[in-house]
Design brief:
This protein is an alpha/beta fold and 228 residues long. It is 37% helix and 18% strand. The site of 6-chloroguanine has 14 residues, from strand 5.
Amino acid sequence: MRIDIITVLPEMLEGFINQSILLRAQKKGLVEIHIHNLRDYTHNKHRKVDDYPFGGFAGMVMQCQPIDECISALKAERHYDEIIFTTPDGEQFNQPMANQLSMAENLIILCGHYKGVDYRIREYLITKEISIGDYVLTGGELAAAAITDAVVRVIPGVIGDEQSALSDSFQDNLLAAPIYSRPADYKGWKVPEILLSGNEAKIKEWELNQAYERTRRLRPDLLNKKGE
Ligand code: 6GU
């Protein structure tokens, strides 16, 4: 899969995508992530990408031309399954959306600046608008990073033990059970006895009960979604 991210703050994303699991996924050839600096698509001396809004409103607006030319250049090379715009008024991102996007061949993510993008971009070029939650960030870069991370990690082969992506919290609308490592007793803080028993069936049963108990207590809303 290939992800093209368009931003005015490329450094913010470069660091993020070249670390840890995202870096390894790229090295393994499971994903290509390309960051595009929107300023490279301007034609003015100061590489300016925004201008005053019509109507006398406050703030600045990212103009159509650089965004259109960047997206057009990408679309001339390959077909894109979705052209995503990150914005707080988009559809709320969740695990099913990440799973679905992970099956795409090519994605564009345009990092939005709220109020700040000429609406014609959204009307004519964008196919999907995504928010990562009900709060406002200064820009869409952090949202693009979150989406990229969640999408890439569910691509088969990205996480060593494939089971582990499937058994995540939210994959089945259940929170994960608690997990522990050695030592079994640290300063008197003990690991649940059952996990040391070697009884696989009992351990599985404990894990599922814990998952239900934690979901009921912390995220009862998820139980209503089960089986949806
Ligand atoms: Cl996608 N962008 C911005 N600027 N703020 C957000 C967001 C996106 N999602 C939640 N808050």
